[in-house]
Amino acid sequence: MFSRRMEGVKESATIKMAALARALRKEGEKVLDFSLGEPDFSTPPHICEAAKRAMDAGFTHYVPSAGIPELREEIAIKIREENRVDVSAENVIVTPGAKQAIFAAMMSILNEGDEVIMLEPAWVSFEAAIRMAGGKPIWLLRRDKPVNYDMMSSVVSEKTRMIVINSPNNPVGYVMGERELREIAEFASDHNVLVMSDEIYEKIIYEKKHVSIASLDAMSERTIIINGFSKTYAMTGWRVGYAVAPVEIVNTMLKIQQHSVTCASSISQYAALEALRSSQECVYEMVSEFKRRRDLIVRRLRDIGFACEMPDGAFYVFAGIPTLSTSSSTSSSSASSSASSSTSSSASSPNSQNEQKDDVAFAEMLLRDTHIVVTPGSAFGNAGRNYVRFSYAASIEEISEGMARIEKLISSH
Ligand code: PMP
User: Fold this and answer.
1) Which of 13, 67, 269, 409 has its CA at 20 to 30 Å from residue 46's CA atom?
2) 3-class DSSP state for residue 190?
3) pTM of the prediction?
4) To the nearest 10°, the Cα dihedral for 38, 122, 23, 386?
5) Which of ligand 1's atoms lies nearest the C-alpha of 314?
6) What radius of gyration, in Å, describes the C-alpha atoms of the chain?
């Protein structure tokens, strides 16, 4: 009854957790949600004002499918100046969210059976987009150690069309350095492979510096940059994202856009234009608050016994599940050795023997016993099996209370 393509596409693994959380809330429990994939801040007022002005000025109709010319131009300027990639407005397509840019790019590039190298763990929608386009994800572990040329060569085939990278990374929080990006660039050139570089968290970065792979050597010829306004400007509901790519790719994506969604919202595009043109102070403020939260949550998680790297960017901690001395309330199945390469500085290894390691069971236990929602690591691929992802798009107070609840639970085991 349904297409073969959709058979391979999984429903979001977080749906069950969300339903459980809703049920608990209905019972009047105070549920703390650390699963959010969006900033908890409001969209800055000057951006909202620009949208109101656009409405009042009558910009409430279809706009050019590739985006309003002013916004495409402004994005091209941003990419040239900040990311050091030599592009013009015709290399830019504005889409209803970065997700749609990813989907349109996969649909434009992939033929049935084409392979796409995916670094695992990876944000969930890349795999879905690859599968919907008839492609096949080929997984390569990249959790806390950079990938290199040889590792990528070990999974390449004559069907490989693309490699997807995402730095700063969701869910792990790593930021790829120039050395790793150069290995990927060299590999992509040698094997004639395209790179999809999802840079949506580029501004939510702490000590390190963001480098776009498209700025290296001749990489702009084979890179599709994905970016958007959802995270940087707390604009998830506005649905504005974009891709920057060689003109032929943009024009193919444009056909998909013309025949599916027509264009991104006219009003939202004027808001996005304001976001780029006006002061970036709001972004700095959000990032410094995220940093405070990151420092707190990582310190507390390590105290409690989770094994976690200090994230360099985005607003997630990918935390190795601590060893519990009893596992009565969780499943004891599926202990995996996938976490053994963790270089965490925490005292507790997520791969200690003989304990429960099922991330889904652990996340369910947290919800049931502490009313805390997290995302099971296996939602991001097998490499996440012994982990849970905490989003720190939550207030300092919520983080403090959440960690206290978890500490109490863990110490009672
Ligand atoms: N890429 C990554 C890595 C993300 O984490 C997300 C949001 N969770 C998106 C893209 C989607 O962003 P948008 O709201 O622009 O569709």
Assistant:
1) 67
2) helix
3) 0.91
4) -130
5) 5
6) 21
Mean pLDDT, 10 residues at a time, the chain of 413 residues: 83 73 87 91 97 98 98 98 98 98 98 97 95 96 94 97 98 97 98 98 97 97 98 97 98 97 98 98 97 98 95 97 62 36 36 57 93 94 93 96 96 84
Q: Ligand 1, residue 100: give the atom nearest the CA.
A: 16
The reported pLDDT for the residue numbered 142 is 94
Contact 362, 356 (CB under 8 A): yes
Query: What backbone torsions phi and psi does residue 95 show, to the nearest 5 degrees?
Result: -125, 165
Largest CA distance in the chain: 65
pLDDT at residue 18 in the model: 77
Cis ω for the linkage preceding 168 (within 30 of 0): yes
Please answer whether residues 200 and 226 qualify as being in contact, where contact means their C-beta atoms are separated by less than 8 angstroms. yes
Sign of CA dihedral 376, 205, 220, 215: negative
The pocket around ligand 1, CB under 6 angstroms, is made up of 37, 97-99, 123, 166, 170, 198, 200, 228, 230, 236, 241
Whether the Cβ atoms of residue 230 and residue 36 lie closer than 8 Å to each other: no
Choose the residue to mutate in 231, 235, 242 for probing ligand 1, maximizing ligand atoms within 8 Å of C-beta: 231
* Spatial distance between the Cα atoms of 250 and 72, rounded to a whole number of angstroms: 12
Distance CA 253, CA 265 (A): 17
- 410 CA → ligand 1 middle, Å: 32
**Tokens describing residue 195:** 């790179």
Probe residue for ligand 1, chosen from 106, 125, 196 as the CB with the greatest number of ligand atoms within 8 Å:
125
Structure tokens at 17: 């957790």
Contact 184, 165 (CB under 8 A): yes
* Cis, peptide link before residue 137, omega less than 30° from 0: no
List, edge to edge, every strand of the sheet that includes 115-120: 92-95, 241-244, 223-228, 194-198, 160-166, 115-120, 136-141
Cα(99) to centroid(ligand 1), Å: 6
Distance CA 317, CA 337 (A): 20
Nearest Cα to Cα of residue 375 among 124, 147, 57: 124
Residue type, 73: E
What distance in Å separates the CA atoms of residue 388 and residue 204, rounded to the nearest whole number? Answer: 21
